[in-house]
Amino acid sequence: MTDTDIKKGLAGVVADYTAISKVNPETNSLLYRGYPVQELAESCSFEQVAYLLWHGELPTDDERAEFEKHERSLRPLDERTKKLISALPTSAHPMDVVRTAVSQLGTFDDTLLRPGGVTDANLNEGRAMYLLAQLPAIVAFDQRRRRGEDLVEPRDDLGYAANFLWMTFGEEPHEVVERAFNVSMILYAEHSFNASTFTARVVTSTLADVYSAVTAAIGALKGPLHGGANEAVMEALDEIKTADAAEKWLDDALAEKRKIMGFGHRVYKNGDSRVPTMKQALDTLVEHYDRRDMLELYEALETAMGERKNIKPNLDYPSGPAYNLMGFDTQTFTPLFVAARVAGWTAHIAEQLANNALIRPLSEYNGPDERHVG
Ligand code: SDX
């Protein structure tokens, strides 16, 4: 076996079929169940998109109403979840809090212990909905308690995006903010075999339960080469401060061989299909909050990175400053990604189970030759 036989990072390896989404780097396009993500972001709610990812079709009006009613009914946090989150140190990263809270949700689910309960498709659909409904409340409560604020209970008269913002900030969002947030959730919802989704599929392939797979996926998403990049983008922009400092900051960072967060992608080499849509949403927020300075800084770093390295932004680049303008704490950005991506993760868990094969690749041994003790 030669080095070229080993696919480091599984780059270029096609590991399985999926009917959930198609990432096409040649055309810079992304389809969810056949629909261009831009069209979904323009016309749909996050709930409709979650339905699409799980069921393969957009909901009819009746299906949508039933789905929304179910999601809204599952929003309030259990007392045990409130207690758990309250007991965790505020010095811990919010991703660790989300991971721990989701793991605990699995311990409440007695149906896992039924014969066949782990792999039952109907039960798993219910679990997916439960996680989708609970994650906003977990993320919002965690940000609030870090700010010394009390929990805000969910409202069942608000859609997913408006309720998420309501629970986080304790006030109904302006429609511009609600719309931009809804767009971000749709764009983050699904992206084929990315590292966290693949992690969920690996865990599922052993016939472990949904909560274990999602908990593991959250761990994979935390790293800055994956979901953690959206908060790292904001840290960089905070460090640079103003547009006129961007070029020098970038030259210094590249000279130190630092990775520039929010740029580059394993699959897209000529631009991330989701960036133009998220950039438009960012533009609306810049106007709403009257923050041209943020836009100038954003564009200065993007231009300099294009000139120096010809590397384009990924979705985390516009979403970082967008979440900042909305008022989220920087460390809450990756938990927002979790709340959205759980729709995709759970769709992949169902797809994996429907046609399962244990995921277990080979390795080429390059350690010491056989030797013996004594
Ligand atoms: C997400 O997979 C998905 O679909 C993920 C995602 C999803 O929706 O699930 O799209 C979400 O994770 C987006 C990516 C977020 N990560 C970042 O923004 C971190 C910064 N980006 C890079 O580290 C990098 O671009 C990766 C990790 C995203 C991709 O890495 P690859 O495919 O392993 O490529 P590489 O690191 O080998 O880079 C190839 C070359 C290298 O230069 P050379 O050694 O060939 O000279 O490009 C350079 C890299 O140094 N490069 C960068 C860079 N990205 C690539 N140089 C500086 N800064 C960067 N951001």
UniProtKB/TrEMBL annotation:
Gene3D superfamilies: Citrate Synthase, domain 1, Cytochrome P450-Terp, domain 2. It catalyses: oxaloacetate + acetyl-CoA + H2O = citrate + CoA + H(+). Pathway: Carbohydrate metabolism; tricarboxylic acid cycle; isocitrate from oxaloacetate: step 1/2. PROSITE patterns: CITRATE_SYNTHASE. It holds the Pfam family Citrate_synt. It comes from the Bacteria. SUPFAM superfamilies: Citrate synthase. The active site is at 265, 316. GO terms for biological process: carbohydrate metabolic process; tricarboxylic acid cycle. Keywords: Transferase, Tricarboxylic acid cycle. The keyword Phosphoprotein does not apply. One of its GO terms (molecular function) is citrate synthase activity. The keyword Transferase applies. GO terms for cellular component: cytosol. Belongs to the citrate synthase family. This is Citrate synthase. It comes from Paramicrobacterium agarici.
